[in-house]
Structure prediction request, 141 residues.
Amino acid sequence: MDEPIDFSEEHARQVLRDHITMIAKRSVEKHGPATTMEVLEQVIADRDVIRRETSWRFDNNLLEVGEFAMAIAQGDGYVIAVHDSFRDDIEALPILIAYHLATVNYGEHVTEVGEAELFGASLLGMDVDVFYEKMCAFADR
Prediction:
């Protein structure tokens, strides 16, 4: 007799986390850790990693007060708007953008349950806690 299928929320979340980790691992194997904008641009252009056409730009007009960046659906793709205060911050940009790439692949709910941190950290080859601490420090500026 076959084992019953697990339809629990916990199981679904674990399947999602496994998929996020697998995709990010493939990305790092192919492109290297996305710790620079040059590598992150390669990752963004790779449809095996980022499922939808995605661009990013500095655009405070698309952000709510207090937001550092936001993934915004545009047609079949996304634009990630980044606050202009990060224009010259080469350390912050990959972290802030990578965090929002999870929304592009998996939808807005991932930012509520921690999978965005997992995807961003894994793309950059970082520990999730270190990634989260850095992201929070940048966002608190």
Summary: The chain has six helices and three strands. The longest helix spans residues 9-31. The chain has a mean pLDDT of 93.
